[in-house]
Specification:
This protein has 357 residues and is an alpha/beta fold. The chain has 16 helices and 13 strands. Helix 1 crosses helix 7, helix 3 packs across helix 4 and helix 4 packs parallel to helix 5. The protein is globular. The structure holds uridine-diphosphate-N-acetylglucosamine and uridine-5'-diphosphate. Uridine-5'-diphosphate binds next to helix 12 and helix 13.
């Protein structure tokens, strides 16, 4: 009986890679579905190539649209895939629209759902991801948690203990499996970086969807550029709005297309500071010991603050926070959250394989 994986957006791919690999090693038949939520080569194809993820068996080609359009298109496509393949389990990843759409369809067809990265909560329902997380967890039969706080949230929401498994973080499996390929010197040469540099990634709706927010982001990048040359791989969501609000006018900010995983992580590994609103980047900087300033008021990943190098910063406080990081430099020692050890995919695969036995 087949395990169907549903992926669709950039953060799904590094999370799915180790799970697919570990299930293959255990001889479990698998079908990989790409919803097509992300479709530019640099948001999708490059991850399959660089992380040696098998080609998707099915691409639903849903593309962009409003939340309802995108979610509905994934639901219609996934329903047919599940009817055609009669799987024993559907595995969904993270908190994107493809995740909740697939979980809802599977649950209604009585196909068990496994949620990788269950239980994260920002407690901010203005984030579309928070709605996706809450609903996906309610629909899931196997909930794979990356941190202890996530288990607490699930328990409080009434999820029975036996459904919850603390497995560690598959995103970090991918990081640790590839760390020898993160070549800071090559990244410096490719991007023409000589002294200290910072990396910025900002794409949340709250930061890029209107002019006032986009102008604030450009102001934040100026503050960062006062201390560092900044490399900013621009997510397609915010590109035009940020350009309309002066992004190209800060000479110390080098704009690039979205980067492939290895190039991006090579840059992050050597950075003096990262400024972000990304979920995954908060985790990656934590493991690499790179100071991370997160331009958000909440995080669903508080373990990156308590055990890592992350700090939530208000826009007004960013200039001081950057100055502090520039003065202090990178930490010499740092903690890494429990079980972020490179073996989460294997733990997940063991649990799935045991269930099928
Ligand atoms: C989605 C996720 C978000 C995640 C982000 C990671 C949801 C609700 N949001 O946000 O949680 O952090 O992915 O990157 O699922 N676009 C392109 N090319 C692409 C994909 C998108 O140009 O390959 C542009 C389109 O204009 C599109 C916009 O980006 O309308 C937004 O894409 P969408 O998938 O709706 O949401 P993201 O902002 O990417
Ligand atoms: N990433 C990348 N190139 C980039 C930006 C990000 O390879 O230019 C990787 C990085 O590993 C990150 C992951 O893509 O953790 C997902 O990032 P994104 O910010 O898109 O999603 P989020 O984690 O915020 O949902």
């Amino acid at each position: 009986m087949t395990v169907v994986h549903v992926t669709g957006a950039r953060p799904n791919f590094p999370k799915a890679a180790p799970v697919v690999k570990a299930l293959a090693a255990r001889g479990v038949p698998q079908l990989l579905v790409h919803t097509g939520q992300h479709y530019d080569d640099r948001m999708s194809e490059v991850f399959f190539e660089q992380l040696a993820i098998p080609r998707p068996d099915v691409n639903l080609g849903v593309g962009s649209g409003s939340h309802a359009q995108q979610t509905a298109a994934v639901m219609i496509g996934i329903e047919q895939v599940l009817l055609d393949n009669d799987p024993s389990l559907v595995v969904v990843y993270g908190d994107v629209n493809s995740t909740v759409a697939a979980a809802l369809v599977a649950a209604k067809l009585h196909v068990p759902v496994a949620h990788v990265e269950a239980g994260l909560r920002s407690f901010d329902r203005e984030m579309p991801e928070e709605i996706n997380r809450l609903l996906t967890d309610q629909l899931s039969d196997l909930l794979f948690a990356t941190s202890a706080d996530a288990i607490g949230h699930l328990a409080r929401e009434g999820v029975p203990d036996e459904k919850i498994h603390f497995v560690g973080n598959p995103m970090i499996d991918t990081l640790l499996a590839n760390i020898d390929r993160f070549d800071v010197a090559r990244a410096r040469a490719e991007h023409g970086l000589e002294g200290d540099y910072a990396v910025a990634t900002l794409h949340r709706p709250a930061n890029v969807d209107d002019d006032a927010s986009a102008a604030r982001v450009v102001g934040a990048l100026r503050a960062l550029a006062a201390h560092y040359t900044v490399v900013f791989p621009v997510h397609p969501r915010g590109r035009q709005r940020l350009l309309d609000n002066g992004l190209a006018d800060v000479p110390e900010v080098l704009l690039t297309e979205p980067l492939g995983y290895i190039d991006f992580m090579s840059l992050v590994r050597g950075a003096g500071c990262v400024v972000t609103d990304s979920g995954g980047v908060q985790e990656e900087t934590t493991v690499l010991g790179v100071p991370c300033l997160t331009l958000r008021t909440t995080t669903e990943r508080p373990v990156t603050i308590t055990n890592g190098t992350n700090r939530l910063v208000a826009f007004d406080d960013l200039p001081d926070a950057v100055a502090e990081v520039a003065r202090a430099g990178r930490p010499v020692t740092w903690k890494v959250p429990p079980l972020w050890d490179g073996h989460a995919g294997e733990r997940i695969a063991d649990i799935i394989a045991a269930r099928r036995a």
